[in-house]
Design a protein that fits this description.
mainly alpha; Arc Repressor Mutant, subunit A; 2 domains; globular; structural constituent of ribosome; ribonucleoprotein; Ribosomal acidic phosphoprotein P2
Length: 113
């Protein structure tokens, strides 16, 4: 993540296509020990791409990851609730209702809004 952040800082600083030296300079300026293989990997994956497009793609991936993990997190909770509270149907209803309120997934990570 720090390599990506350094790359983005270079782009925001005016370098449209940062080199590994640019990214390495940013990292060493804040005391990070640089792994040049990781820097090259970031440069190779991001070179020639627009930063706005990279961020938009990442936003879509985060939204889909948030929705799928919300569903996975809710299902085990429902199973445990059913076993423990067979005599208390009101609590089971509350768990189901609270999970449906986050169905859009946007309330958890408003990262880029």
């Amino acid at each position: 993540m720090k390599y990506l952040a350094a790359y983005i800082l270079c782009v925001l600083g005016g370098k449209e296509n940062p080199t590994k030296d640019d990214v390495s300079r940013v990292l060493t300026s804040v005391g990070v020990q640089v792994e040049f293989e990781r820097v090259e990997e970031v440069i190779n994956k991001l070179s020639g791409k627009q930063l706005s497009q990279i961020i938009a793609d990442g936003k879509l991936k985060m939204a889909s990851a948030t929705k799928s993990s919300t569903v996975e997190a809710v299902q085990p909770t429902l199973l445990v609730s059913e076993k423990k509270t067979e005599t208390e149907p009101n609590k089971k209803k509350q768990v189901i209702e609270s999970s449906s309120s986050d169905s859009d997934g946007e309330s958890m990570f408003p990262l880029f809004d």
